[in-house]
């Protein structure tokens, strides 16, 4: 009886069994491949087709890349070295990299000037892009345009100094008069800046070339990828505040302001950018006094900025329309005036919503800077189509040059895209 009772009592384990590894097909790379690439028959077929296409592309691209020639003087020597073997003539990049990057404006000993301006660009935009940096760095951000202008264009140092002094005088007059009237402060500041620049013109005109520290560079000679960077950075920086003003003006209760903004936005959006560039190159000269020298790069910057500002205005208008009416009513309930409500409540939320659209316009604008080559400006594409391919040494080299151009634009545009995604994650304060 006791034996039967002993066998009827269940055994209770006092310690746990050691944890075993999951099956190979249920974890790790095998699981990922099975779930994402071969989860069903249609996906499996598409995966096999994609693998074949990748193999076909890489089987032709990799021998061309790794079997390329980098140390010949012209295309004829390059073809002799290859002797029919697959490979690219990358010697054109090693010999003409300076023209592709800097154009024909500088001697080799002067490449430090645009290089330094490019490096300082990251220092200047860092406090604007990353708000955790010390606010004192914004002082250099305000000074950077004048420093970069002097490094790139050279000439007398008094030109950027007088330009900076004009802005300072205009701001001081504006800050003194705006308390009594916004119009008085605005027009007084503009007048003070204009007078300062007018006086500065006489000062700069009295400077002889021997009194300059850096050799002056004509705008017509500035080219290469540096020109694309100048146009992209300047036009994006200017078009964003102008686009905000146009978006707010289009929603204004003042009919004149509203219709001016509406006509401007709709007209610019209905005209191709290449048409505006031809206007900048040819037509604007007919509206200027005889003998007036209006810099071509400045004309192009004005047209591209107008074009992108119209598109950014529509993107921001969409962000303003996406805000609920309660946000405007909350600003009114706090007793905020129009400027305070827009600066503290409305615009921060609208701009956060508009980040993807603004970045899309910025990336498209940067790529559209290559259109300046159609008005005989030697940007990166203009250098490839002009001085390089027209020479007898490298006439016939195409893939290598265009691949280099694609790489440069991809790096910049991809960087802009990655920053926008990071910024969206930083500003994602809502709960989803």
Explain this structure.
With 432 residues, the chain is an all-alpha fold. It folds into three domains: 24-64, no CATH class; 159-211, no CATH class; 218-427, MetI-like fold, CATH 1.10.3720. It has helices spanning 2-8, 28-36, 41-66, 75-82, 91-102, 112-129, 138-153, 158-177, 182-205, 224-250, 255-269, 273-281, 296-322, 325-333, 338-368, 380-388, 399-426. The longest helix is centred in the last third of the chain and has 31 residues, at 338-368. It is globular, with a radius of gyration of 30 Å. The mean pLDDT is 84.
Notable features of this structure?
MetI-like fold, 3 domains, 0% strand, mainly alpha, globular, 432 residues
Overview in brief:
The chain folds into 3 domains: 24-64, no CATH class; 159-211, no CATH class; 218-427, MetI-like (MetI-like fold).
Strand content: under 5%
Structural class: mainly alpha
Rg (C-alpha, Å) = 30 Å
Measure the end-to-end span: 66 Å
What's the tally of helices? Answer: 17
Outline type? globular
The biggest beta sheet reads: none
Question: At the first level of CATH, what is the class of the largest domain?
Answer: Mainly Alpha
